[in-house]
Each structure stands twice: as structure tokens, then as C-alpha cells.
Design the sequence.
């Protein structure tokens, strides 16, 4: 079967939600090569994060063989949306790293609206020969990235769940593998709890000093204006406002009279 026809089969199957079949005992995880536990930390200033899908040989297996796959990312478009590229065949997803990049397969992707609060991104990939992901030595990073999707964070909530379903195709390239429940899919979370800024550092120079305290005091007196990011960094006592109280706390922090702020970053 030609690869393009094979990919067409992938999309057709995905469209009718044939999504959770695998042939071997592998573990599919989201984001674990970037952060433990399937969390992808949002530390980019432009609010864009890479969400990888990783395949790892099961504990009882020495390798995982992947000839092709269908996967879906189910997400809330009000919270995050996939970044669109100029690739006509796969505008929303790129081939992963290592073994999958070297395989020179074909990847396609499409976005499907389920409802106003739910979209499903369908990604399918196939190669002429299977990709074999070998178990690494102890202490080495396990797994290989099958695909990567970049999301733009639209709303700063505590975290944004990314639900992923994965289907593996038969190694002979003729159709879907027989269903087998011996697999694990670990969903990902874009974690927005650990923000990439220093609390109290209003001017973003990398340290909390009397300059920041002065900015907070001047703001309360309406002598200056502050951006939303500056206000977020300057609000250190947890009351939602930037006032002389915050200025005093920042000054005390610089003098080491306090070691942390009432508000937790």
C-alpha cells in the first residue's frame, strides 16, 4: 500500500474514532521529556509551549516498534490553541526527534471542532519501515518523541489539560493492528503554576531591589503606569493590588528582613 493511501486510511479511521488500539506493550506519554509527570511548564515569554508525545518501551520489553500511528489531542480552544504552520499536509504537528526524524515518514494533521469548548487535533504518521525505539541504559533519558505540537496559551488558568489518544498501526502497513489493552496513555498538562518571573521584580532586571519598591510606591500615587505583567510581579502581599504595602514588603525583602512574600508565586 502506498504511503499516501496509508495516511488516508489513518485519517479515515481517526474520523470515526478508532483511536485506542496498539500492537505491543508500550507507554505513550505527553511532555515527559520536558518535565516529569506529563507536565509541560509554560516558561516561554510568548506564551507558546511545545507538547511532545513520547513512546517508551514497556518495563517488560526491550524495544517498541512503531510503523505508523493515529493520535488525537483533545483540548479547550478557549484555553489553548495549536500553532498553525505553512505546511499544507500537516499544519499543526511536526515529526518528533531521533528515530522518528530519521525514518523520513509522512505526517498529516487536521483540526476538528467538536463543540465551542472542545476541539480535536488529529495527527497521523507512517513510514515505509518501522521505527524501533530501544530501551536506554539506566540513567539515560528513555523514550523517543513521535510527534510535537506547539500550543499558544490563551488564558492563564492554573493548568490546561491536553488529553491524548494514540493508535498504533500494523507493521505490515496494511491496516490497523489488532486491539490490545496492554498499553498506557498518560495525558499532558500545560502547567501554569510555576510562572517564569521573579515575584517582586517589577522592572524585570533579575533582582528585587529598592528600585522595585519605588515603582510600587509611585504607582499607588498615580505618578507612573505599570503594565499587566509589571503589576503581576509587583503584587506581593496577595490582596490583588499594588500599593505601599507591597512597596514596604519589597524593601524589607531587599534588606533580608523577610525571605519570602505573603503571596506565593
Sequence:
Amino acid at each position: 500500500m502506498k504511503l499516501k493511501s496509508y495516511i488516508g486510511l489513518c485519517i479515515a479511521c481517526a474520523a470515526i474514532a478508532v483511536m485506542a488500539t496498539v500492537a505491543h506493550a508500550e507507554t505513550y506519554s505527553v511532555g515527559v521529556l520536558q518535565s516529569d509527570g506529563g507536565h509541560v511548564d509554560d516558561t516561554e515569554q510568548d506564551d507558546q509551549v511545545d507538547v511532545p508525545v513520547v513512546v517508551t518501551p514497556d518495563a517488560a520489553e526491550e524495544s517498541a516498534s512503531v510503523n505508523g500511528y493515529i493520535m488525537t489531542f483533545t483540548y479547550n480552544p478557549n484555553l489553548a490553541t495549536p500553532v498553525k504552520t505553512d505546511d499544507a499536509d500537516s499544519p499543526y504537528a511536526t515529526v518528533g526527534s531521533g528515530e522518528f526524524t530519521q525514518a523520513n515518514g509522512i505526517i498529516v494533521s487536521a483540526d476538528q471542532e467538536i463543540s465551542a469548548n472542545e476541539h480535536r487535533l488529529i495527527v497521523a504518521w507512517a513510514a515505509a519501515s518501522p521505527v524501533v525505539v530501544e530501551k536506554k541504559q539506566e540513567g539515560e533519558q528513555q523514550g523517543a518523541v513521535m510527534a510535537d505540537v506547539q500550543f499558544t496559551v490563551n488564558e492563564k488558568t492554573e493548568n490546561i489539560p491536553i488529553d491524548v489518544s494514540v493508535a498504533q498501526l500494523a507493521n505490515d502497513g496494511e491496516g490497523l493492528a489488532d486491539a490490545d489493552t496492554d498499553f498506557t496513555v498518560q495525558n499532558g498538562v500545560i502547567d501554569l503554576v510555576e510562572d517564569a518571573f521573579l515575584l517582586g521584580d517589577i522592572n524585570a532586571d533579575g533582582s528585587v531591589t529598592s528600585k522595585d519598591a519605588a515603582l510600587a510606591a509611585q504607582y499607588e500615587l498615580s505618578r507612573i503606569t505599570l503594565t499587566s505583567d509589571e503589576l503581576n510581579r509587583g503584587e506581593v502581599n496577595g490582596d490583588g493590588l499594588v500599593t505601599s504595602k507591597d512597596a514596604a514588603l519589597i524593601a524589607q525583602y531587599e534588606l533580608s528582613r523577610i525571605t519570602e512574600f505573603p503571596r506565593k508565586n
User: Anything to note?
Assistant: The chain has two domains: 3-191, 197-265. The chain has a mean pLDDT of 74. The helical segments are 3-15, 99-102, 210-220, 228-234, 244-254.
